[in-house]
Design brief:
Layout lengths: L2 E20 L5 E21 L4 E5 L10 H9 L5 E7 L10 H16 L6 H9 L5 H6 L3 E4 L4 E4 L6 E6 L6 H6 L12 H5 L8 H7 L1 H10 L6 E2 L6 E5 L2 H8 L7 E8 L3 H5 L2
Organism: Sediminihaliea albiluteola
Protein name: 4-diphosphocytidyl-2-C-methyl-D-erythritol kinase
EC number: 2.7.1.148
């Protein structure tokens, strides 16, 4: 019998991002604070016994070996287990909002349920880490302080704020930014208390501003309304507001050459809320 599950695969913001060192394996150690949003892509899963993983919709024309949804499904697939997955994208690619990682995490969580795999959430986080550094926080499903490569997570209760997220129309490769020699890689670790006192930044921001004029322009524009910051390696920038109305009022003034949306920060991923 076909089983059906529809999930909102959420975007995330990095409220700050400090790079504290480069590891021997080429990855970077970091500190960050992930804020999940009530905005994201929609994934519809229909499990079956076809033995095939079929993806339709907004799949970005990726080859199976590059598609994190396919790779996540194959980590759990056994015998004749199959699934049809329909993807409706809203999270921009190359924006620093974690769309691909979120989709992979949603796939792990959905198929663990539909295929009755029996993995614990912590085991799924470990599987997800093999797909990408941002996948574990989406599997864990709550806003979190992260260290290591992003896999060491500590749940955090954050003030409920609204965010205006602006996409200035360019695509930024995370791999390219992290390979730049000018990237700051020696930030000293901070405490959570220091973050809440304002002692933080995004170590990628100055480098991205220097290389992507559209990001610099978006940050300059947002400065009129708040304290903007780059999320991840960009290209999206954001500012926080106390109410939805305040954020929407600024969105209405957004220059026509950019895209943007307003979203609420959430304590728990809508994926976890939707799972039976």
């Amino acid at each position: 019998m076909t089983q059906h599950l529809e999930l909102l695969s959420p975007a995330k913001l990095n409220l700050f991002l400090h790079i504290t060192g480069r590891r021997a394996d080429g990855y970077h150690n970091l500190q960050t604070l992930f804020q999940l949003l009530d905005y994201g892509d929609t994934l519809v899963f229909k499990a079956n016994h076809s033995g095939q993983i079929r993806i339709s919709g907004d799949t970005l024309d990726l080859a199976p070996e590059q598609n994190l949804i396919t790779r996540a499904a194959k980590l759990l697939q056994r015998d004749d287990l199959g699934v049809d997955i329909e993807v409706s994208k809203r999270i921009p690619t190359g924006g620093g909002l974690g769309g691909g990682s979120s989709n992979a995490a949603s796939t792990l969580l959905a198929l663990n349920h539909l295929w009755h795999c029996g993995y614990s959430n912590s085991a799924l986080q470990q599987l997800g880490n093999s797909l990408g550094a941002d996948v574990p926080v989406f599997v864990a499903g709550h806003s979190a302080w992260a260290e290591g490569t992003g896999e060491l997570l500590q749940r955090v209760e954050l003030p409920q704020l609204w965010y205006l997220v602006v996409h200035p129309g360019c695509h930024i490769s995370t791999a390219k930014i992290f390979s730049e020699e000018r990237l700051t890689r020696d930030s000293l670790p901070i405490t959570m208390a220091a973050f809440f006192q304002g002692a933080s930044r995004n170590d990628c921001q100055d480098l991205v501003i220097a290389n992507y004029p559209a990001v610099a322009e978006a940050i300059d524009w947002l400065t009129k309304f708040g304290e903007p910051r780059l999320t991840g390696t960009g290209a999206c920038v954001f500012a926080s507001f106390d109410s939805e109305g305040e954020a929407l009022a600024v969105l209405q003034q957004l220059p026509v050459q950019w895209a943007g949306f307003v979203a609420r920060g959430v304590k728990q991923s809508p994926v976890l809320s939707a799972l039976p």
